[in-house]
Amino acid sequence: MLATSVKVKVPATSANLGPGFDVLGMALDIYNTVEMSVEPSGTMMVESIGEGSRFLAKNGSKMLVDAVQKVFDTASFDPGGLRIRQHNRIPLFRGMGSSAAAIAGGMVAANLLLPNPLTAEELLMLAAKMEGHPDNVAPALFGGFVIASQNGDDVRYTRIEPPPSLKVVVAVPAFTLPTKKSRTVIPARVPLKDAVFNMGRVGLLVSALAAGDLEMLRHAMEDRLHQQYRMPLIPGLDEVFAAACNAGALASTLSGAGPAVISFVTENSEAVGEMMRRAFGRHGIDCRIIETAVGRRGALNSTVSLR
Questions:
Q1: How many domains are contained in the chain?
Q2: N or C: lower Cβ tally within 10 Å for the chain?
Q3: pTM surpassing 0.85?
Q4: Is 233 known to sit in a ligand binding site?
Q5: pLDDT number for residue 306
Q6: How many Cα atoms are found within 13 Å in the side-chain-facing hemisphere of 142?
Q7: What range does the domain containing 137 cover?
């Protein structure tokens, strides 16, 4: 019997993690929910509550709706009408994977309504193609820490379960920074020595997380490919990094395209968050602090068929 009503939880994500530009991502323990049901009237109704609800109401939650439609088009399936309700807890346009959550949540929910659901790999391919890169959508689908590589329509990934003691502190500035704008400042060509530097740091980071060598993170999360070019867009960014590490953070890095900053800790999370807040404040920027953890579950293993 086909499901006619489903609910999906999809996590926030932090991409790049320093050196892993467009390759590395991690889910955070902050979840949006998407409820989707077949609507007998044949119409499409979308309701958004929570973070960014005013913006989403004005723009019709287009990304989520487009993601849903891509799954139905791929499967040649017409559900008739749909009623979609999304409860958003992920801040929009802050580098915390709000667009990836919309894509992954919409696709997984739509997939649950299919008579012959797509595979996880097919969903990842569709999601990465829609997002343009896999570093957010992969952890949004699978949870944990994910390494993903895309070559055309071919997307390969592997998942690592991060150490249980690893916690996260996120400083979310009170201004938005669309990913498109943040990507335009990154040069199309970079020095070979910088590319080699980042390759080495990616290797160290993956190894450190797999082995639980958290003391290595401060060195492993160093970057020369994107953060230095994005600093002018985020006043005080280098001071925020330094403040977090001086307060006891293992490492601190830009979350995705920013402007949010993510710090990794095993203790002292409150002190780290306060020092990050003060550093942004010295540049006239208000921010809120979110103390959270790695999201162990992605959208694919956080689903409920209601009926």
A1: 2
A2: N
A3: yes
A4: no
A5: 66
A6: 27
A7: 5-161+295-305
Residue 54: CA atoms inside 13 Å, Cβ hemisphere, count? 0
Q: Shortest CA distance to 26 belongs to which of 197, 231, 205?
A: 205
Asked if residue 98 has pLDDT above 90, the reply is: yes
Specify whether 256 is located in the same domain as 175: yes
Binned at pLDDT 50, 70 and 90, residue 43 comes out as: confident
At residue 140, φ and ψ (nearest 5 deg) are: -65, -35
Does residue 136 sit in the same domain as residue 213? no
Mean pLDDT over all residues of the chain? 93
53 labeled part of a ligand binding site: no
pLDDT of residue 305: 64
Establish whether 242 is an annotated binding residue.
Answer: no
d(CA 199, CA 160): 18
* 255 assigned to a ligand binding site: no
Q: Is 99 annotated as a binding residue?
A: yes
17 and 122 housed in the same domain: yes
| pLDDT tens for each residue of 144-162 | 999 999 998 899 999 999 8
Residue 91 in marked binding region = yes
Q: Does 98 carry a binding-site annotation?
A: yes
Q: What is the CATH number of the domain that holds 98?
A: 3.30.230.10
Same domain, 137 and 193: no
Based on the domain organization, do 71 and 191 belong to the same domain? no
The CATH number assigned to the domain holding 216 equals 3.30.70.890
Q: Determine whether the annotation assigns residue 100 to a binding site.
A: yes
Q: Is 95 annotated as a binding residue?
A: yes
96 labelled ligand-binding: yes
Check if the beta carbon of residue 287 is closer than 8 Å to that of residue 243: no
pLDDT score of 57 more than 70: no
Q: What is the mean pLDDT of residues 13-33?
A: 97
